[in-house]
Amino acid sequence: MHVNDASDRSSSRSSAEGDAIGRFERLYADAERGGAEVPWDLAAPHSLLAEWTGRSRPDGSGRRAVVVGCGFGRDAEHLAGLGFTTLAFDVSPTVVRAARRRHAGSPVRYEVADLFTPPAPWVGGFDLVLESMNVQALPVGLRARATAAVGRLVAPGGTLLVIAAGRRPGEAVDGPPWPLTRAEVESFGAAGLTPALVEEITAPDGGLRWRAEFHRA
Question: Structural domain of residue 60, as residue ranges?
């Protein structure tokens, strides 16, 4: 081992993280120029979120929600409509600007931020945290860090809702995205969160989806 091995590994991790994150900004910027389409640019909130809120009927009055990797804001606007004081963030400046334009006058606060280095007041700051289809878009080497970072946003007494594409253990996937196994979904509970429900759902396209709810005491 030469003296630079540790720094080389650190540099490699930073490079991998930068590539993974930069991919989103490139996609959104290309789409803004008309050179690409964003597959998740839909008019409605994610169906598994809408179904969950319709069933649980959460009262957002006086409570704070955060949407991780908010994209164009469909899910954030849905939560704001339930009375939550809602913060929505994305690593892509382009999509945050687009969300602000699309939802001019919205009470949602759209911010540019990196999940791995959130502002200190965000840690433990939210009664409802929504992580929908983001961690699966990251390489396996970043996934544990991202999972832990999501969990740290949940306030005492708060709830984390995770929505993800799924795969079976040992199933080969040529990502991105890299759908999550049940064990990977359950790992969101590692940082002091208690799993309340992990649902295995068959999507209309026949694919596997997860919807999982975790609570912090």
Answer: 5-216
Q: Stretch 119-124: mean pLDDT, rounded?
A: 98
Residues 65 and 129: their CA atoms lie apart, in Å, by: 6
Give per-residue pLDDT as tens, 152-186. 999 999 999 999 999 998 888 887 889 999 999 99
What CATH number is given to the structural domain containing 119? Answer: 3.40.50.150
Q: Which of 52, 46, 59 is nearest to 197 (CA)?
A: 52
Q: Name, in order, each residue with C-beta under 8 angstroms of 107's C-beta and a sequence gap of 6 or more.
A: 80, 85, 86
Q: Who contacts 195 (Cβ-Cβ below 8 Å, separation ≥6)?
A: 186, 189, 212, 213, 214
Asked whether the beta carbons of 140 and 178 are under 8 A apart, the reply is yes
Number of domains in the chain: 1
pLDDT of residue 42: 85
Place of tokens 């995205």: 177
pTM, rounded to two decimals = 0.88
**Cα gap 202→145, rounded to integer Å:** 28
The CB density around residue 145, as the number of other CB atoms within 10 Å, is 15
pLDDT exceeding 90 applies to what percent of the chain? 71
Characterise 6 by phi-psi region: left (phi > 0), alpha (psi -120 to 50), beta (else): alpha
